[in-house]
Amino acid sequence: MQDIKVDRLRGSGGKATKSESVCAVPMFGCLLASEAFLGKNRVWRTQNADQRILVELLDGHRHHVAKLPELESIAAYDVAAVNAFIAKRDFRIALPPSQPPDFNVASVMKVKVEWQIRGQVTEIGKFPAVRLERGCEFFTSIECPHPVVGITTKNGDRVFMTVSDEEAPSGFTLFNRVRSIEETLRQTKGYKGAIFPMIQYDEEVDISWVTGLATTGEDGAVAIIKHALQQTKFRMNDVGAIVESAVAMGVLRSVVMERPLIIDRPFLLWLSRPSMPQLPLFAGWFNEDDWKNPGAL
């Protein structure tokens, strides 16, 4: 594989595109952390396609996510405590003030991997890059026109890379894009080692589409995500790669109000006796014609 000279990373049509990322795990962590207030295994009501994908993935992987050692979460009424949790882990996102019964959650994921054999520092054009001579496997996929390199790391995780000519996908479009490629990989030959750019990425990712996701707590009060923030950092060099992502959510809670059940339309009524199940002593349907004070009984 030869060094490739480029002036800029370009998308389709030759237009420079902004880097995009999707990291769903800390979003799952926030939803799971919410269960400290709402009760376990909530049913989330979705309002858009991305929310539906998020909830479907959570339902399919909640037990795995809950056991991830690289995931830390917090849930608290005190927004200052949640913001301090985020800041302590070197993220700048912060939730606005809130008051109980509203509460706040945050989740931070940090995964660090090392190449099995340290790479050599090189360049691609004017950009710092890494050359790996070993530890690489190569694949083709019917889902993309370019070869794919898979790099196994010391802990067994794998990092895949392939050139992309398309405009940068975002959100779960990006997630589904890479998943479809990985599911159709076929091993190939003809390459020895790989050369790829070093990366330093730090962005606040727009996850405003999460707002409005709602559920009902065990106490009957509705919970709606009012604020959703994410910051993701990714770095990659000759030693390995590290991904760090933080998600913070503010959850608005309705107060459960005990109120009377008002029967203000025609209604059914029946009188039953426990010793005579399924055999009412009396049953009636009453409309306004008979809504009268009967006097003394």
Detailed description of the structure:
The chain is of the alpha+beta class and 297 residues long. It starts with 24 loop residues before the first helix and ends in an 11-residue tail after the last strand. It has 4 helices and 15 strands. The longest helix is centred in the N-terminal third of the chain and has 18 residues, at 49-66. It has a single domain (12-253), classed as Antithrombin, Chain I, domain 2 (2-Layer Sandwich).
Q: Which SSEs are present, and which pair or pack?
A:
Elements: H1 25-38, H2 49-66, E1 71-76, H3 79-88, E2 103-114, E3 120-124, E4 127-132, E5 136-141, E6 144-152, E7 158-161, H4 171-183, E8 185-187, E9 194-197, E10 199-205, E11 214-216, E12 222-236, E13 240-253, E14 267-271, E15 282-286
Antiparallel strand pairs: 1-2, 2-13, 3-4, 4-9, 5-6, 5-8, 6-7, 10-12, 11-12, 12-13, 14-15
Helix pairs in contact: 1-2
Key words describing this protein structure:
297 residues, alpha+beta, Antithrombin, Chain I, domain 2, six-stranded antiparallel sheet, four-stranded antiparallel sheet, 4 helices, elongated, disordered N terminus
Kindly state the percentage of residues in helix: 10-25%
Distance between the termini: 98 Å
CATH classification, class level? Alpha Beta
How many helical stretches? 4
Describe the global form.
Answer: elongated
Low-confidence stretches: 1-16
The largest β sheet comes out as: 6 strands, antiparallel
